[in-house]
Design brief:
The structure is a homodimer. With about 140 residues, the first copy, chain A, is of the alpha+beta class. Chain A has a single domain (about 5-135), classed as 2,3-Dihydroxybiphenyl 1,2-Dioxygenase, domain 1, CATH 3.10.180.10. The first copy, chain A, is about 20% helix and about 35% strand. Chain A is built from 3 helices and 9 strands. In chain A, strands 1, 2, 3, 4, 5, 6, 7, 8 and 9 form a 9-stranded mixed β-sheet that branches. At the A-B interface, strand 1, helix 1 and strand 6 of A face strand 1, helix 1 and strand 6 of B.
């Protein structure tokens, strides 16, 4: 079921400071432009690596789900891991049948790459918050 | 400087249970054999994804650095992220010159893939424990 490791999600109190960290300190050569995902309460920015991406995530708005994470981890930290799946609804149904808990309503939302996503509850996933993302049909 | 996302490190109280999770629940198709790294106090197992790997890490011995992490995260969780670099000593010296803190003595050790590795202190890295690993000269 799970395919490519699409990205790792890293929460940060400041996308600008984190872009500087990955670009100027760690020498990553490609950082995208930050953009808002208001429906998810986050502002994000992707750092491109040769084989995967880092998604920097900053809280957007008072209800952002990232505030709680940053309260526990004020410097930021590893927030989630995103794996690609070919068909998000097939993946959801198979995982439910195997006993996994899907976060929220269980209906996929459109994620930062424009394809449907779901999150799996870390309690069933060895403490890791896992995002599943349908593989873009026209990869970019 | 940083190149491929070689792997994400996931701490677990049981490699066997985590292999079952990634293989049987999440449908990853390739899991290696677990092996011990006594010098680092860990037992590890790699799950292969099409573009990267998950390194499952279980404590080995009473002095394992993973015990503290599992005390805070009993189910396990995301422990570190490993980026490849072409030359570990050049990377270390450049990062030190930019103010990063290298964990331990600062002398590279040989990691799970047989090439030299170093860890960077999360306090300078946005709360993320970063491993740098010299790219294998003969990739496998």
């Amino acid at each position: 079921m799970i395919g490519r490791l699409n990205h790792i999600g890293v929460a940060t109190p400041s996308i600008e400071a984190s872009v500087a960290l990955y670009r100027d300190m760690l020498g990553a050569t490609r950082a995208g432009e930050p953009f808002d995902l208001p429906a998810q309460g986050v502002r994000v920015c992707f750092i491109d690596l040769p084989n995967s991406q880092i998604e920097l995530i900053e809280p957007l708005g008072d209800d952002s789900p990232i505030h709680g994470f940053l309260a526990k981890n004020p410097r930021g930290g590893q927030h989630h891991v995103c794996f690609e799946v070919e068909d998000i609804l097939e993946a959801r149904d198979a995982l439910r049948a195997r006993g996994a808990s899907i976060l929220g309503t269980g209906e996929p939302r459109i994620g930062a790459h424009g394809t449907p996503i779901l999150f799996l509850h870390p309690k069933d996933m060895g403490g890791v918050l896992i995002e599943l993302m349908e593989t873009p049909k026209d990869p970019h």
